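Input/output pair, single chain:
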Amino acid sequence: MKPDEIIRRQRLALGLSKKDVYEAIGLTASEYVDMEEFPSEAILVPPLAVLKKLCKVLNVDLLELIGEKCQCCQGKIQHLEYSGQPRHLLLARRREERGLSRKDFAEQLGFEEWVFVEMEQKEDFLEQRTVDFIRKLARKLALPVQVLLAYPCPKCKQ
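Output:
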């Protein structure tokens, strides 16, 4: 099921109005309506922090909403190898392990260098970025998206 369908279905199942939801998560009416109308809107537009709020209000699993499977449940990663390490420091470490300067890394992803300086210094930087951005970053650094989302799986709690 696509994100727009999940959002709409769950809102209706809970008996919430669109206004109930957009006010609870801090969006305008048009920003929220777009997430119910366009399949990729939730992936491409709102920051991660907003999606986390949306999932909490609608009682939806973020991984399910964005079409990701828990890598721990599938046995593809041991979450312990990433636990306890702040995301911004993990990003810096992985970039360095790949032998990339901030400038080179930024250019490869189509951003200015200052974005990556900020990313490696601010602990909550990724909360203000889209899922699409986080996926690109995860792919480039060979990190599980789930780790960069800082979202524990509701099933395995990892």
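The longest helix spans residues 3-14. The chain has a mean pLDDT of 91.
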